[in-house]
Write a structure and sequence with these properties.
439 residues; alpha/beta; four-stranded antiparallel β-sheet; 19 strands; 31% helix; binds zinc ion
Length: 439
């Protein structure tokens, strides 16, 4: 793939700002695993890429699960004995336990107290809580707010609805040169939370937008789905398509934190795992590679044993492992455009590695070809750098029809991009031929 369209650091920085702008636009929307918040979100994403919106009816059996009733909410509040609003959904949608059933009643503070969720260890933050699969209700508030509540009769109102409707998700299929697919998935079910949720949405959206303008070998399938139930619903209705998925990434929490975390697919040595490890190893930024575990985001479903898809999870801050996780502190101040830009760049490099991988055959395997007479050797006035020379020597040596360029990059301990450039130079001079066996 031609990376020249994004050659300058300025362009990458601009993408980071655009991603941040999209997140800021999506941030106020009250999303959940179903409902109008997801539709509104998909509508906004649709201004950037032509996604298709799909609706799966309530009650649909999806493997061992059932699509739940659709949840929507207009307003919610708690009023103190003086009629003053002390918890207000309109100030933050985190104040209501997501999926709360409708409620309108008066009750004492001691009756209300078990319904109030706080974070004593972070007394200024509001927690994010959900009650998807049991009909319940509650409020979330800062611990400081809670301590200010006096005895007396409170009025609570949750103007929500929980009715038969749909589970909504977005899908964007971008055809490539082959029917083989790369799956890019992110969850769209969190309300006003920036890093865990919106950053993944922004990265997937701008990655799709970028790839649309490029020629690419693979077809790309972008999923914007509610966590867990969304991937289960999609998988249950697209089993045939999963056979075409050759590589995949779940993108989540990519806007904060000073290092990357990549969680490998269940297979552990899939091409996506190796490509991502190579990119991160040579990225110059701190990173951590983790083995697969059946916990986390939708890789849990994609990597369930009945599918075992080669899908890893690219994060910066892993779920549950940063203090701001699932709290009001995961807000627009917590994420940074520069980190979003870096995540975009790394993801693009991973995609480039998948796109550029292949098996080649050295056309001059008996001793080294004379690079100098072809202008490929620095010492006789060529323009190649030492790095390019070394990359070419590695490619020549290992291009015996048995090694992929990614194998060569690993063996040479080189960034994939360098090996790929070395191969391109050799191809241009007819010293290398693509293997027919690898397509
Ligand atoms: Zn989450």
């Amino acid at each position: 793939m031609n990376k020249s369209a994004l050659s300058s650091a300025q362009k990458v920085a601009d993408v980071g700002l655009e991603m941040y702008k999209l997140m800021a636009e999506l941030y106020p929307i009250c999303r959940s695993i179903t409902g109008n918040g997801v539709r509104e979100t998909l509508h906004i994403i649709g201004k950037h890429i032509p996604i298709e919106v799909h609706n799966v009816p309530t009650g649909t059996k999806v493997f061992d699960w059932t699509v739940p009733k659709e949840w929507n909410i207009k307003n919610a509040y708690v009023k103190n004995p003086h009629g003053e609003c002390v918890v207000d959904f309109r100030q933050s949608n985190l104040h209501v336990v997501n999926y709360s059933v409708p409620v309108k009643r008066r009750l004492s503070l001691s009756e209300l107290r078990p319904r109030l969720h706080t974070l004593p260890e972070h007394p200024e933050w509001v927690p994010y809580r959900t009650s998807y699969y049991s009909e319940d209700w509650g409020f979330c508030l800062s611990h400081t707010q809670l301590l200010e509540l006096k005895e007396g009769e409170y009025e609570v109102c949750i103007d929500s609805s929980l009715q038969p409707g749909f589970l909504t998700y977005g899908e964007y299929f971008l055809p490539g040169g082959t029917a083989d697919e790369v799956l890019i998935s992110c969850h769209v079910c969190h309300p006003s939370l920036a890093n865990d949720n919106l950053s993944g949405i922004a990265l997937a959206t701008f990655l799709a937008q970028h790839l649309r303008a490029e020629t690419h070998r693979y077809s790309y399938r972008f999923l914007f789905i509610p966590g867990t139930i969304g991937s289960i619903a999609w998988l249950s209705q697209h089993e045939a398509e999963t056979l075409r998925i050759k590589h995949g990434l779940v993108l989540a929490s990519v806007g904060a934190g000073d290092k990357f975390t990549y969680k490998k697919s269940r297979r552990g040595n899939a091409e996506i795992d190796r490509a991502t490890c190579n990119v991160l190893r040579h990225s110059g930024t701190p990173y951590e590679i983790r083995e697969f575990s059946p916990y986390g985001y939708d890789e849990r479903q994609f990597c369930s044993p009945g599918f075992n898809l080669p899908v890893g999870c690219l994060m910066r801050t892993p779920n549950g492992e940063f203090p701001e996780y699932h709290t009001s502190a995961d807000n627009l101040e917590f994420v940074q455009p520069s980190l979003l830009a870096e995540s975009f760049e790394v993801t693009l490099e991973i995609v480039d590695a998948l796109e550029g991988n292949g098996v080649y055959i050295n056309q001059n395997p008996k001793c080294e070809p004379q690079l100098g007479k072809r202008g490929l050797y620095r010492s006789v006035g060529g323009t190649q750098s030492e790095v390019e020379e070394l990359a070419m020597l590695w490619v020549l040596n290992l291009s015996d029809g048995k090694h992929t360029l990614l194998d060569i990059a690993e063996r040479a301990e080189c960034p994939f991009g360098e090996i790929r450039r070395g191969a391109s130079l050799l191809l241009a001079h007819d010293l290398l031929k693509q293997s027919e066996a690898y397509a």
